[in-house]
Structure formats: structure tokens, C-alpha cells
Design brief:
Number of strands of chain B: 0
Radius of gyration of chain A: 19 Å
Distance between the termini of chain B: 36 Å
Oligomer: heterodimer
Strand content of chain B: under 5%
Structural class of chain B: mainly alpha
Distance between the termini of chain A: 37 Å
Order of helices and strands of chain A: HHHHHHHH
Largest interface: A-B, 50 and 50 residues
Helix content of chain A: over 70%
Largest sheet of chain B: none
Shape of chain A: globular
Radius of gyration of chain B: 14 Å
Shape of chain B: elongated
Number of domains of chain B: 1
């Protein structure tokens, strides 16, 4: 399991996020969102990666929301994190290529990651207005959450398929006398 | 508040976005957002994780498209 807390803590100290500094009209948009879906997604991520890791992930996203400049400053770190996750997804993809449905889903995630990584690189120049920054932050949130969620599912499926793969490769055969 | 969940993070981004578009467009934006969200009013307890992630991504893509449309109309 990838330790997100360890990865993300390199980019920041251990201060508690200052959520209060958000100017919040939270309820306005919150009430319009599909809360059932989003809460289930959070619950699923929390179960998969652990509450601490999820907290670290949200902490990173919150830091970027509080100060978009940090996002730009941390592009090399983000590229590294995304590259690690993409590599793992590619590995999972090659092992599960016979599973057409999953392969299609993972491929979709890889394409998304390429699209958003490109946006990330270009953002240094194009994110000039507040409205562009908000849109860009949404892309980053989508990218990070979707890629982590997708990776974790692929990882779990690999775990579940491992006994079958091992059996097929002869690992379950009794030692030869 | 000690922790943020996915819904809160997204709502904060949407709210920040709303602050930067014309006031008369905000109601229309929220109404369209509500319409998109209504497509995802399912009982997610009965769906697989793959289906949940798939719905989450579809919703986020629709939301981003909506934001992009409003961004274009502002420019």
C-alpha cells in the first residue's frame, strides 16, 4: 500500500490546516452536490487507504486551496507523485490485460492523468485569473482523487487475483520429491 | 472542523468559482449543478467500488464541463 501521508508530508510541515481562513458560503453549493455519491467515495477511500492517509490527501488539497501559489511551487513534487501512481497503474494494466472491463477503466484513468498533467504544466502561464485557478483546482482534485481511487481498486483486484496467478504459474504445486 | 471530506473540498472550490462569476449567473449555475447531481441520486450502498469511482468521475467531468462553459461566457 502506498503511504500517502509520507509522500505528501514532504511538501508541508505538520501544522494543522487553517480551514477557517476559507471564505465559506459552504451550504450554498454543498446542498446542490450529490452527497450520497461523494460521501460514499470518501468512505471508500478512507477504508482503502486508511483515515490517516485520507487526511493527508485532504490536507494537501486544502493547502493548495488556501494558497494556489503552493500548487505551482509544488509541481515537481506532484509530477513525481503522479508518475509513481501512473507507473503502478501501468503495471496493474499489463497484468490484467485480459480483463477487458478493468483494462478499459484503467486506460481511461491513464488518459485522464495525461490530460491533467499537461494542464498542470501549462498552468504556470495560463492560470492568471481567479476563475481559471478555481477551475484548475477542480481538475487537480479530480485527478488526485480519481487516480488514487482507481489505483486502489486495481491494486485490490490484483491482490484478489494473485492466488489464481500463483496457481497458474505453478507456485501452488507441492515441492518435487 | 478538523477534517474535510470530498464533498466539502468540492463545495469550497465551487463556491470560490461562484464568487468570480456574475451574480445573475450564479442561480442558473446552481440550478444546472442541481440537475447534474440529481442523476447521481442512487443508493450507493448497493453498488460496487468500481461503479462508485466511475460515477464520481462522470460527475466531476460534468461539473468541470459546466464550470468551463461558465468560464467561457465570462471571458
Amino acid at each position: 500500500m502506498i503511504n500517502l501521508e509520507g509522500v505528501f508530508s514532504r511538501s508541508s510541515d505538520k501544522r494543522e490546516p487553517q480551514y477557517e481562513s476559507f471564505e465559506i458560503e459552504s451550504k450554498l453549493a454543498l446542498e446542490k452536490l450529490p452527497l450520497g455519491l461523494l460521501n460514499k467515495f470518501s468512505e471508500m477511500l478512507s477504508k482503502r487507504i486508511g483515515a490517516e492517509n485520507l487526511r493527508a490527501l485532504m490536507y494537501m488539497l486544502t493547502e493548495f486551496l488556501l494558497d494556489p501559489k503552493k500548487l505551482v511551487q509544488n509541481i515537481p513534487l506532484l509530477e513525481t507523485i503522479f508518475e509513481i501512481i501512473r507507473k503502478r497503474i501501468n503495471e496493474a494494466y499489463s497484468k490484467l490485460s485480459e480483463n477487458e472491463k478493468l483494462a478499459k477503466f484503467i486506460n481511461y484513468l491513464i488518459n485522464l492523468s495525461e490530460k491533467y498533467l499537461k494542464t498542470l504544466k501549462e498552468s504556470r502561464e495560463v492560470c492568471s485569473s481567479k476563475i481559471e485557478k478555481a477551475l484548475f483546482l477542480m481538475l487537480v482534485v479530480l485527478f488526485v482523487l480519481a487516480i488514487v481511487g482507481g489505483y486502489l481498486i486495481a491494486q485490490q483486484l490484483l491482490k484478489e487475483l494473485k492466488p489464481l496467478i500463483d496457481a497458474l504459474s505453478g507456485k501452488f504445486l507441492p515441492p518435487q520429491q | 472542523m478538523n477534517e474535510l471530506n470530498t464533498a466539502e473540498i468540492i463545495s469550497k472550490i465551487v463556491n470560490n468559482f461562484l464568487k468570480n462569476i456574475q451574480e445573475e449567473k450564479r442561480t442558473a449555475f446552481l440550478s444546472e449543478l442541481e440537475k447534474i447531481s440529481s442523476k447521481y441520486n442512487k443508493n450507493y450502498d448497493n453498488l460496487s467500488e468500481e461503479e462508485i469511482v466511475s460515477d464520481f468521475m462522470s460527475f466531476m467531468e460534468e461539473l468541470i464541463n459546466l464550470m468551463e462553459n461558465y468560464q467561457r461566457s465570462e471571458n
